[in-house]
User: Fold these one by one.
Assistant:
Number 1:
Amino acid sequence: MKPVCLAVYLAACLVVSVLLLMAAPAGAQWREDTQGIMGTRVHAELWEEDPARGSQLLAMVMAEMRRIEAAFSPYLESSELSVLNRKAPHGWVAVSGELFDLLEKSRSVSELTGGAFDVTYASVGRYYDYRAGERPPDALFKQALEAIDYRYVELDPAHQRVRYTRPEVYVDLGGIAKGHAVDRAIEVLLDAGVSQASVSAGGDSRIVGDRRGEPWNVGVRDPRRDGAMAVMLPLLDTAVSTSGDYERYFEADGIRYHHILDPATGDSARNAWSVTILGPETTLTDALSTSVFVLGPEKGIALIDTLPGIDAIVIDAQGTLRYSADLAPLTASP
Ligand code: ADP
Ligand code: MG
């Protein structure tokens, strides 16, 4: 696949850049850290004059990421999400404002996408083991599939409580929690007065400001060539999320089983290889990248074209790059 350079979101920042470079205080520099959190690589980078302050800000970002992992990981028995999954099939469970808010946001994306995004996908998804190469046992599959429907997660805003209206319902926030974590980490930095930073968790990134006058370059990986990039995006003040079928998968009888499930079938969605969404916040771009992956290129891009301020780059199941309407005129081969 030929790499393409998109002149997306690239404002006339180069003039500003020279001025900023001249104004940069002598000690100021980029500070960065990378840690393994939420089963992925979390990276933060920011511009800060004082080294001690730089380290402190990076530590605050990582602490926020770890706090969110502890709350929403389905793999930790002690997480608030795991407690909910154990108790909500039996009745109302009072939850934190943060969990309630994430469930409400998930529900609104489910409504927007006609159920392509559905956190109850995990009623079936919990029985896949990608590392071990295991699919849900036939004996369980039918009943588990019937438990996929976001409407089985009842939300009571007056009492900030949740219950599941079917016993087999199981919720996993893997399609939205990393985006939420990145947004929260960026909020921490904005509250501290940082004006140039990037935070990413796996395929979800958010960028604040520019990179000393240059745009930040975010690559979209080539889904079928390890280490290669399919597209480079020069970005300013943007959230960007990529969902791909190459992250977690195994193959059986020539079929790729990966971690994005079509809630209608309980099987992996196979109409795309990768989907990248651009927008203002990672919570939304994360959920939409998973959604458009399930919807496939035609329905997915048609949906994105109805949403102002949101754009999509889809690599379809033939390896062809497709863009939402706002991006199409900006694409050009180098
Ligand atoms: P990642 O950054 O983990 O690759 P993605 O944004 O591509 O995440 O989303 C994939 C994750 O979303 C899966 O690991 C799973 O936790 C969750 N998921 C899978 N299918 C769906 C779906 N149809 N609706 C909501 N969440 C899903
Ligand atoms: Mg996603």
Note: The mean pLDDT is 92.
Number 2:
Amino acid sequence: MGKPVQKVGILTGGGDCPGLNAVIRAVVKAATIEHRWTVLGIPDGYDGLIWPEKIHPLGAKEIHGILPRGGTILGTSNRGNPFAYPMQENGTTVIKDVSPILLENVRKAGIDVLVVVGGDGTQKIALELWRRGVAVVGIPKTIDNDLSATEITFGFDTALQTATEAIDKLHTTAESHHRVMLVEVMGRDAGWIALESGIAGGADVILIPEIPFSLEKICSKIEGRAEAGRHFSIIVVAEGCHTMDGHPIIPVDHERRQATRSGAIANTVGTLVGRCTHRETRVTVLGHIQRGGSPSPFDRVLGSRMGVAAVDLIARGEFGHMVCLRCGSIESTPIAKAVGALKIVDPNGDMVRTARALGISFGD
Ligand code: F6P
């Protein structure tokens, strides 16, 4: 890219998470204060570039007071891939490549660089735009913490806090009623939220996609606790977990890579556990509560660090790269290397080892 940067567009794509506004705020502050660039807010992910009417400047007024707010002031979408966009035609859904419209709108808006904040799917689209000549810089985002290119994604810490607080609350009612309480958390491909909130919350069983489970093993853990006088148990269930025979225990929406109905997995496991232990079970599904709330201090700081680092990449002309956290420091990596490789829990890693040593069962 030859001409000096003047206009930076920013969009947030995919599932929202706490910390997105910290990123937006940091990009706007660093870009306008240090470089006097104009920052344009692109609403609702890539949709905002397909229908560009709502693109608007972001300045001090727009970012005032957003640091502690969850969600994204820009809005987001996790359904609109411009290269394969579902459009309604004569009452039927057709899939169209509308990327030429998007590319033309980027040009018309005078956007020199596009900052894309999102998870794996969003970054894959950014990579395709980069390959078609759009200067892009990526910022990784997901509460699932399943992006291999970065140690931690902002959003994860707040989701972990939310899940842990919920598990803490379930302990007292489980013990009072001598019940088996199951709590379903998000994480369709990787069990990081389940694993870490299970350890932090003192769970007795943690079910994650990376370690297939058997019902018999879960029930034996519960009976073992009862024989030791602990007539209640806490089971943390990741939405993507499955049984040892590899078959999902409930219908799976393969396109969205998750159960066709939130809570279906925990409810099914709860019913089966109730039958085999003859104990009362109750199920709590945290769902999108994990995606909301005010970002933790950690996520506000990490989001701010990543936003500033993205502006630094732009100033250095390092396009096609994504900022990342490595050994506690902010670095960058080509987006091409960052996408497609999910960071899943290592069943032989120290986090699982820790849980097992604490007496936590993975149902295996
Ligand atoms: O990828 C983040 C995530 O929250 C997953 O943990 C969850 O399965 C999915 O998004 C939910 O997507 P939606 O918001 O479209 O229901």
Note: The mean pLDDT is 94.
